[in-house]
Design a protein that fits this description.
636 residues, alpha/beta, six-stranded antiparallel sheet, 21 helices, 25 strands, 19% strand
Length: 636
C-alpha cells in the first residue's frame, strides 16, 4: 500500500488558536480521511512550536513560565481535536526530548557537511516572524512587511548556514520536480526568490534561554525555524533508536506532503530542503501553500486583531458545519473572506436547502409508501447512473488535487440532478395516483441512492453528520472505502428511521440582528465614558459630493466611490452600502465623510475615509446636509 505522510504547520503557543490555525488542520484532516478511504497508508501529524523569543515574552507578560503557557495552549488544541474530530496520529511538541534529540542530530549532520560558520549578524528583526528583514523589505516607518508592527535592530554573534551554496540545487529541484511547490503561482514566487540570490542564513540566537542549545556552540540556541521545521522528522523518530516510522514514511517511495499557509512558504520551500540536502536526508515530495482567511479585507491574525474564535463558531453552528464552510468557501490556494453572513448563506443554501430538503423529501415519501422501509425494487437503468459515476470520478480527481471545493461541487451536481429527477417523476403524485408500485419504488430508490453517494463523499468533510445522513437513507454502517461511491449500494426493504431535521434552516435576519444586538450592548458599555469636545474634534467630518460610484468586484456589499472634498483630486472611498443604494443614484449626492481616518483596504481596494450613515436594522441610511454647501465644508 502506498504511504502518505501528511503534516500541518506546528502552531505557535503564544496565543490560543484562531480559525486560521484550525483551518489548516481541518484541510489536512479532510485529506487524511479521504486518503484512508482511498486505501492509502496515512500518517498524519500536527503539533506546537514552543520555543523562541515571542513565547518567552508572552509568558513573561503573564508572569508565568514559557512551558506553562505552552501547556495551556496545547490543552486547547487537544480540546479542539475532540470538538472537530481531528484524526491525527501524533501531536509533536518542540519541547519534547525526542524533538531535541532530532534537532541536535540534524545540526550535527549539517556541521559535518561543512555548512556552518560563525559571524556577526545585524539587521532589522521582527519578533512575531522571528525573521531579519533588509531595509528595502520594511514597510513605512520601519515596520514588518507582514505584521505592520515596529521592527527592532539586532546585532549579535551567530552561527550561519551556507544557504547560498544551495541556490543552484534548489533551482534544479524546482525544475526537476514541479510538484515540489504547489500551487504553481507559489512555485514561481519561490523560483524568483531563489534566482534573486540567497544570502547565508543565521541559524542560532545568542542570549536566548528558551530554546534548544546549539551543539558545539556554547551560548548559542538553535534558531526557531531550524528547530521547528525539524519537527517533521522528529515525529517519525529521527535521532532516536526506533527508526521504523522514519524509514517507512520519510525514506520510502510514498508521498510526503507539508500542508501550510502561504505566509510560511519560504521557510518550507527554501530553507527546509536546503537543510535536508546539507544533512543528506530525503526531501518532502510536496509543499502545498493555501491562502489566507481574511476578514474585512485583512488576514485574520492576532497581531491585526480581527480574529474569530473557533469555539464561538462551533457553539453557534456545529463543528461539521464549520468544517464544511471552510472547505467549500475557500478555493484551495486562494484567499477567502470570512463573515457571519457568508456563513449563514452557505449553510442555508447548501446544507439546509440542497442536502437537508432532499433527504427529508425522499425519506418521508419512501417511508410513507413502503411501510417505513427502503423501497423493495432497485433501479439499474436510468440517466442518474451516468451522472453519479461522473460525479464520483470528478470528486476523486479533485480530492487527489487538493481541490476540496471542487470535490464538493461535484457532489452537489449529483444532488441537483437527483432533485430534477424527482421533480420530473413526481413521486408525491405517484403515491396518490398509483400507490406503492414498482415504478414508485424505482424512483424513490434512485433518490435515496443519489443521497447515499453524496453522503459517502461527504464522510471526510463531515465525520459526524455524514454518517447520520447515510443512516437516514438506509445505510446504517458508514463505509470505509471509496468503492462505496459506486452506484447500487442502497439495500432494499431495510428499516428507514423517521426523518429528523439534520440541517435546520437558520433565520438569517434574526441571526444577524442577534449579532448586532450583542454589538450594540458592547457599544452601550463603551458609551458610559463620555468624550470631551476636544476628543470629538479630533475627528474631521467634511461634506463632499459623490462624483463616481461603482461596485467592488466580488463583493455584494461594497461600492467604490469618488468623493470631491474640495481637495486637489477626489478621494477614493469604499462603503458597505451596495445592498441599499444603486451606484447611479448616488452620483451628485452630498454626503458627510470622516476625512482624517487612517486609510484601509477593503477587498483589496483602498479607502481613504468613511461615509457616514445611520444604521437602521443593519441597513445604511446616508446622511446629507439640509441644503447644498461647498465641498470640503467642515461638520461640527
Ligand atoms: N510556528 C510556525 C510554523 C512552523 S512549521 C514548521 C507558525 N505558526 S503559526 O501559529 O503562526 O501558524 C501558522 C499557520 O496557521 C499558517 O501557516 C496557516 O497554516 C495557519 N494560519 C494562520 N492564520 C491564517 C489565516 N488567517 N488564514 C489561513 N491560515 C492561516 O507560523
Amino acid at each position: 500500500m502506498k504511504t502518505f505522510y501528511l503534516t500541518t504547520p506546528i502552531y505557535y503557543v503564544n496565543a490560543l488558536p484562531h480559525i486560521g490555525h484550525i483551518f489548516t488542520t481541518t484541510a489536512a484532516d479532510t485529506l487524511a480521511r479521504y486518503l484512508r478511504m482511498a486505501e492509502r497508508e496515512v500518517y498524519f501529524i500536527t503539533g506546537t512550536d514552543e520555543h523562541g523569543q515571542n513565547i518567552e515574552r508572552a509568558a513573561r507578560a503573564e508572569g508565568i513560565a514559557p512551558i506553562e503557557l505552552a501547556d495551556r495552549v496545547v490543552a486547547k488544541y487537544s480540546e479542539l481535536r475532540g470538538r472537530l474530530e481531528f484524526s491525527y496520529d501524533d501531536f509533536i511538541r518542540t519541547t519534547e526530548k525526542r524533538h531535541e534529540r532530532s534537532v541536535q542530530e540534524i545540526v550535527r549532520r549539517i556541521e559535518a557537511a561543512g555548512d556552518l560558520y560563525t559571524a556577526r549578524h545585524e539587521g532589522w528583526y521582527c519578533s512575531p516572524c522571528e525573521t531579519f528583514y533588509t531595509e528595502k523589505e520594511l514597510g513605512p516607518g520601519k515596520t514588518c512587511p507582514v505584521h505592520g508592527t515596529a521592527v527592532e535592530w539586532k546585532s549579535e554573534e551567530n552561527v550561519f548556514f551556507r544557504l547560498s551554496k544551495y541556490q543552484q540545487p534548489l533551482l534544479a529541484l524546482y525544475a526537476k520536480h514541479p510538484e515540489f511547490v504547489r500551487p504553481e503561482t507559489r512555485r514561481n514566487e519561490m523560483r524568483s526568490f531563489v534566482e534573486a540570490g540567497l544570502r547565508d542564513l543565521s541559524v542560532s540566537r545568542a542570549n536566548l534561554e528558551w530554546g534548544i542549545p546549539f551543539p558545539g556552540y556554547p551560548g548559542q540556541t538553535v534558531y526557531v525555524w531550524l528547530d521547528a521545521l525539524t519537527n517533521y522528522i522528529s515525529a517519525l523518530g529521527f535521532g532516536s533508536e526506533d527508526l521504523s516510522l522514519y524509514h517507512k514514511f520519510w525514506e520510502g517511495s510514498g508521498v510526503r506532503l507539508h500542508l501550510i499557509g502561504k505566509d510560511i512558504l519560504r521557510f518550507h520551500a527554501v530553507y527546509w530542503p536546503a537543510f535536508l540536502m546539507s544533512a543528506g536526508l530525503p526531501l518532502p515530495t510536496t509543499v502545498w501553500a493555501h491562502g489566507w482567511w481574511n476578514r474585512d479585507g485583512r488576514k485574520i491574525s492576532k497581531s491585526i486583531g480581527n480574529i474569530v474564535q473557533p469555539d464561538e463558531l462551533i457553539d453557534r453552528f456545529g463543528s461539521d458545519n464549520v468544517r464544511y464552510f471552510f472547505m467549500r468557501e475557500m478555493v484551495f490556494g486562494q484567499d477567502a473572506s470570512f463573515s457571519d453572513e457568508a456563513f449563514v448563506d452557505r449553510y442555508n443554501s447548501d446544507l439546509a436547502n440542497d442536502l437537508g430538503n432532499t433527504v427529508s423529501r425522499v425519506v418521508t415519501l419512501a417511508r410513507r409508501a413502503f411501510g417505513g422501509k427502503t423501497p423493495p425494487v432497485s433501479c439499474d437503468d436510468n440517466p442518474l447512473i451516468t451522472v453519479a459515476r461522473q460525479a464520483a470520478e470528478d470528486y476523486r480527481k479533485a480530492m487527489e488535487d487538493f481541490a476540496f471545493s471542487r470535490a464538493l461541487e461535484s457532489l452537489w451536481r449529483l444532488l441537483a440532478e437527483a432533485n430534477q429527477y424527482l421533480v420530473a417523476h413526481e413521486p408525491w403524485k405517484l403515491i396518490k395516483s398509483e400507490g406503492p408500485t414498482e415504478k414508485l419504488s424505482r424512483v424513490l430508490w434512485n433518490g435515496l441512492e443519489a443521497v447515499r453517494i453524496v453522503a459517502t463523499g461527504l464522510l471526510p468533510f463531515m465525520p459526524k453528520i455524514a454518517p447520520r445522513v447515510l443512516a437516514a437513507v438506509g445505510t446504517a454502517a458508514p463505509p470505509t472505502s471509496l468503492e462505496a461511491m459506486a452506484w447500487g449500494g442502497t439495500p432494499n426493504g431495510v428499516e428507514l428511521p423517521e426523518a429528523v431535521p439534520l440541517f435546520p434552516r437558520i433565520d438569517k435576519e434574526a441571526y444577524l440582528a442577534e449579532g448586532k444586538k450583542e454589538e450594540r450592548m458592547e457599544t452601550a458599555v463603551a458609551e458610559k465614558t463620555p468624550v470631551s469636545i476636544d476628543q470629538f474634534f479630533e475627528t474631521e467630518l467634511k461634506v463632499g459630493t459623490i462624483t463616481a460610484a461603482e461596485p467592488v468586484p466580488k463583493s455584494n456589499k461594497l461600492l467604490k466611490l469618488a468623493v470631491d472634498l474640495g481637495e486637489s483630486s477626489p478621494r477614493q472611498l469604499v462603503a458597505g452600502i451596495a445592498l441599499a443604494y444603486k451606484p447611479e443614484e448616488l452620483v451628485g449626492q452630498q454626503v458627510v465623510v470622516v476625512a482624517n481616518l487612517q486609510p484601509a483596504k477593503l477587498m483589496g481596494v483602498e479607502s481613504q475615509g468613511m461615509v457616514l450613515a445611520a444604521s437602521l436594522d443593519g441597513k445604511p441610511v446616508l446622511l446629507h446636509p439640509d441644503a447644498p454647501v461647498p465641498n470640503g465644508t467642515r461638520v461640527k
